[in-house]
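Sequence and fold
=================
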Amino acid sequence: MENTNKGKCILMCAGQYFGDKIEKAPGDLVIAVDGGLRYLIDRGVQPDLVIGDFDSLESEYEDALAQYRKAGDGVFYQLPVVKDDTDTLAAVKLGYERGYRTFEIYGGLGGRLDHTMANVQTLVWLVRRGASGILRDRETDVTVIGKGVFRLPASFEGTVSLFALDERLTDVTIQGMKYNVEHVTVTNDFPVGCSNETVSRAGEAGGSEDKAAGSEIPAQISIGSGTGLLIMTAHLKNRHH
């Protein structure tokens, strides 16, 4: 399907979430995924769609759930408990079918490790279909990147870790960070990409060419081939300086 939606698809899932209120812009689609409905209700956000098997929603939210169930098809999607897709993947597919290609997933980190890993694989599902997704919490963003250039937001300061999800990432170049490399290979059995970090001013980035440049260097990662997991934790710096 051609992307006709310029907004983003926002998923609120049932995992641990400690962030602020979800911000919905015009054109965005908000989906409550199973027990994630409670987070939206508590923050005064009305979802556009509700989907799940609802095995993780507390009984105190049953009345609110009943209102969405009453709305029926197009708003409420009841999933079976026994299924192949996780609730999150089913919600992502729903947003994808509606033409969305940018996804923000809240409540998808913390809690059960198996669910977190399932959500990481959901990000891989998106990347391999020409879309992008990010798992977000208060301080941490997790995304999956493939061939091409990923530029960190200019406002981001903190720790950045890159891990290979495929057997190897080839032709990896990192610029504008404390530890920079050019045209290297990163494998999935050696966590060399753990705990890099952004720099706050020119001259702090690693490498003589960076220091000689005398200007701000955008923080970015380029990959020649392969799929990588990128974890960005804001305001976190290593203590071994």
